[in-house]
Amino acid sequence: MFTKVRLLFISIVISSSILLQPLLAAGETGAIFLLIGPSPTMNAMGNIGVSLPAYDIYSGYYNPANPILPKGLSYQQSKYHTSWLPGLSDHLTLGSDVEMIGIRFRKPDIFFSVSKYNIVHDIGEQTLTDEWGNTIGEFNPVMRSTATTYSAGMTFSRVPLRISLGRTDKKVIEELGGIISDTLINHSDFYDWGCLLSFPLQLKRSGSIVNFVPSIGYSQSNIGGDIKYVNPGGLLEYTDPSPRFARFGISAMLEARSANGGNLFSFSYAREAGDILVKFSQEDGQWHHTYQNGLGDINITKHIIRQEADESVTLYRGGEIGLLNLFFIRKGRIIDLDGSMDINTSGYGYNLSGLLGLFSILKDDSLFLALSKYINIRYNYARESTREHGGPRDNTVYQELTFSLENPQQFLSLLRKENITWFSSGLVSNLWYQQDQSNYSRVLGFDMGVELPNLFKKDGLVTGFRFARMGFAMKDMVYYLGDSLFVGNSLSIDYHLNYLRAYLAKPFRLLQFHFLIGVEFGYLVDVKSKTTICGSGGECESETTVINGNDWRKDYSGNSEDAGIISGIRIPISSQLSVGFQYYHGFTNLINPLDAQNQSLKLGLYFHI
After folding, report:
1. In angstroms, rounded to a whole number, what is the distance separating the alpha carbons of residues 401 and 379?
2. Among 371, 431, 463, 456, which Cα is nearest to 600's?
3. pTM
4. How would DSSP label each residue in 62-123?
5. CB under 8 Å to 182, separation ≥6 — which residues?
6. pLDDT tens digits, residue range 52-65?
7. Cα distance between residue 237 and residue 12, in whole Å
8. What is the mean pLDDT of residues 314-334?
9. CB 416 within 8 Å of CB 609
10. Taking a C-beta distance cutoff of 8 angstroms, is the pair 278, 287 a contact?
11. Which residues, including other chains, have CB under 8 Å from residue 517's CB and lie 6 or more apart?
12. Which of 96, 387, 464, 481 is 20 to 30 A from residue 511's alpha carbon, by CA?
């Protein structure tokens, strides 16, 4: 068994070296997936982040002291799943799930925040062979990191100084195999810490406000003992140093605001450097390692100010231009001579609060401005391209949506003034297939959301926003998807589709009943599919997969957008409670090769505030 374990481990080490180490300049350390930057915002700007103050929910990865919060209580959430290094392999994926809750006081101007990070790096299914090419087995290396970040900061009123500190505690699990007795596992605990100093200066002139904020940041990540890989029996197989990493940088942000505080224009730029704090030496034929302190090999004058590259550190630089707090353009560059990397980065972002602020000006409606202070959705996209096209990181793409709710107690007060209706429903949903529905069956779902009357100052119209889980099931089918053909009575697939949806409807009353008819639009967030295959003997195997919206379009020829009509009836039970039935019929093909649309029937409760 020891020989098989050794072969498995050597195979994984070699695979990891090929897949990751040259790409991240991590040397011979373990758990090098911890050096993959998860932020689409920061990755678009050359993977900076230690020195640039940001509202980005992922900023705590680069510097635990970084999160900048709006005033009051706030909650943010983001999740994405993407292919990583598509130029190298179709199997590598990177998934991230982040939540943050924070509070910022006005006087004194201090903030506290807690963030939860869950990052999963899936290497994909691998085949293990012996020295003669015989297949020993298959395994699927998966690496996970669960982290909690605590941040606190204060802005001084009498001097232009903002200081923040942060710490991250993380648990790392690496499962480097799938052969039951020979699986190699690493369980490690690490921590990060960081500090950020900013010097906010403000100039008021001619009814406008100009803010200039230079900053300095430092962080050190993955601090802890050596990584030990063992099999389930407890046999120590290998030891690696942890990927302890130092970051240092300087940045500057210039921002122009109108007299009422609206953002007109912003520009940010940063120069940073990073270094693996592990040094190797050879003595008596054995390799040894030690950990450096402080900046490691980073030289502030050479690497930060002059941006001169050498093999000792990795250089990062990038910037962002923002217009009306609505649209952002980003550029950057990563230079790592030791890892043979020279990467250009680019990206862009949209901000819902900026759009609501613009609507408020164009329509002269204060409700849009009020909403922009409480709810926000950010979309960020980043793309990496190597100077030598076809490299492993060429065309690596990151994109995410971040939802945030600020000052929820004030937001609820605003909603109460508007006579808001909250609802929650159970859905019976299905795919409306024009040719033959015999192979399609219904699945159960749910939705929850809110209705606002007269949002667009149109008397008698209601606007609704909801999260909905819809879906359908496929049984005993002959089904084409692209060029693939699935046949067999033993095959079934359940699809659960998660949507963000909005509708505009006209209500009217007849006797004691309230009727509603209107149009609805939906945007697909992701799809959860469960495939079940049963053999002739009755044995069944199931596999569950989560498909993000981009993969649904790319790999399944599907559509992310959905549009259709709604109609319903509501029966009042009291002045604050109604029960209702509603039907939705979509007109957009869910999957392009099929003439098939979403349909759902729901039973819900409606609470009138």
Report:
1. 5
2. 431
3. 0.71
4. T-TT-B---SEEEEEEEEEEEE--TTT-SS-EEEEEEEEEEEE-SSSEEEEEEEEEEEEEE-
5. 1, 4, 5, 8, 231
6. 999 899 999 999 99
7. 12
8. 96
9. yes
10. no
11. 505, 506, 565, 566, 567, 568
12. 464
- pLDDT for 238 beyond 50: yes
Strands (E) across 130-259 are located at 135-139, 142-155, 162-175, 185-198, 201-205, 208-223, 227-230, 236-240, 245-258
- The amino acid that residue 414 corresponds to is L
**Cβ atoms 561, 390 nearer than 8 A:** no
How far is CA 347 from each of CA 41, 47, 82, 203, 384, rounded to the nearest angstrom? 8, 12, 16, 30, 9
Report d(CA 47, CA 23) in Å as an integer.
13
By the 8 A CB rule, do 231 and 139 touch? no
Residue identified by tokens 């409306």 is 432
Q: How many CB atoms lie within 10 A of CB 254?
A: 14
Give CA–CA dist 512/522, Å, rounded: 31
Q: Are 584 and 598 in contact (CB under 8 A)?
A: yes
Rg (CA), the chain: 27
Place of tokens 């080490």: 13
> What 3-state DSSP class applies to 15?
helix
Whether the CB-CB separation of 332 and 320 falls below 8 Å is answered with no
First to last CA, the chain: 67
Q: Are the beta carbons of 53 and 70 closer than 8 angstroms? A: no
